[in-house]
Amino acid sequence: MHVSLRQLQVFLCVAQCRSFSQTGQTLGLTQSAVSRAMVELEGQLHVRLLDRTTREVLLTDAGQLLAQKAAPLLQELADTLAEVADVGHAARGQVRMASSPTLSAALMPACIAACNRELPQVQLQLVDRLQQEVLAQVRSGDVHFGLVVEPPELGDLDCINLLHDPFVAVLPPGHALVQQAQDATSLRWDQLRGEALVLLDHASGSRRLMDAALLASGCGPEHSPVVQEVGHVTTAFRMVEAGIGISIMPGLAIPAQGLSSLQVRDLRPQVQRAIMLVRRRQRSLPAAAQAVWDLVARRLTTLPPQ
């Protein structure tokens, strides 16, 4: 038996209108299409549903039973489909987003606050992880999407660039390079040659970009040794304070109020890291996750340049 939803809809309209022509007008069908649908439905059920006269269409006993039983079922189906469509388009529920620590601290608090204001039915849960873990969680589907520093390869991920964050040098106040800084605000990368460095370790998405910039400026490991590798920016700042070395940091790692005990200098030529949102390729996001993705993208792409 192959009874279609369309056949049942036409039948119920005929049962209500008691006319093939009026049914056709209501449903946007020709009278012959209505008649054909009823013949096909009766053929599938092997029972006569309608008695046709020259003036009206009457329901048989079988037709009355079908109309009585099918009408509420089709209405329930329509209500269910509308409810499913509403779920698909409504921005509500929990959204899990992963971000690396520096980006979490510098960018996400304002985004979460905006989400609370603009999407009150969405609960945004931030998962604060190292970059490699962020990418792994995006790929596994443990989170809906992630905020990262440009990965070496995207592979199975889709991304959008949001902003660019330049690297800066962090030095103790009495360091000789502080006095050499051009116009008191910047240093050249090659001026770091011969300096001991305290850098973020390779779990950071920024480290490979720092290494490339140092090498390009003649400050490779043989000339500017990395004496300490750390996982957190605060640890690096304390080591610089202790005189262990100087550091290179993303601009977003520097607090808005600055570092009272340290000096920060721009590095020339400017080298930037790209900050991007990433998600699994060819996977649609739920409505709530898409709404948060759009909100984060909108806020971060309108930030003033560093």
Assembly level = single chain
**SSE string, helices as H and strands as E:** HHHEEHEHEHEEHEEHEHEEEH
- The gyration radius over C-alpha positions equals 33 Å
Number of H- or I-type helical stretches: 10
Estimate the global geometry from the Cα principal axes: rod-shaped
Main sheet summary: 10 strands, mixed
Low-confidence stretches: none
Strand tally is: 12
Domain HTH lysR-type: 3-60
Pfam families: HTH_1 (PF00126), LysR_substrate (PF03466)
Family: Belongs to the LysR transcriptional regulatory family.
Protein name: LysR family transcriptional regulator
Could you walk me through the main structural features you see in this protein, from its secondary elements to its overall organization?
By secondary structure, the chain is of the alpha/beta class. The chain contains ten helices and twelve strands. The protein has helices at 5-17, 20-27, 31-45, 61-89, 101-118, 131-140, 176-180, 207-216, 233-241, 287-301, and strands at residues 50-52, 57-59, 93-99, 122-128, 145-149, 157-171, 186-188, 197-200, 226-230, 246-250, 263-268, 272-280. The strands form two sheets. Strands 3, 4, 5, 6, 7, 8, 9, 10, 11 and 12 form a ten-stranded mixed beta sheet that branches. The protein has a two-stranded antiparallel ribbon with strand order 1-2. Helix 1 crosses helix 3 (31-45) and helix 2 (20-27) packs across helix 3 (31-45). The mean pLDDT is 90.
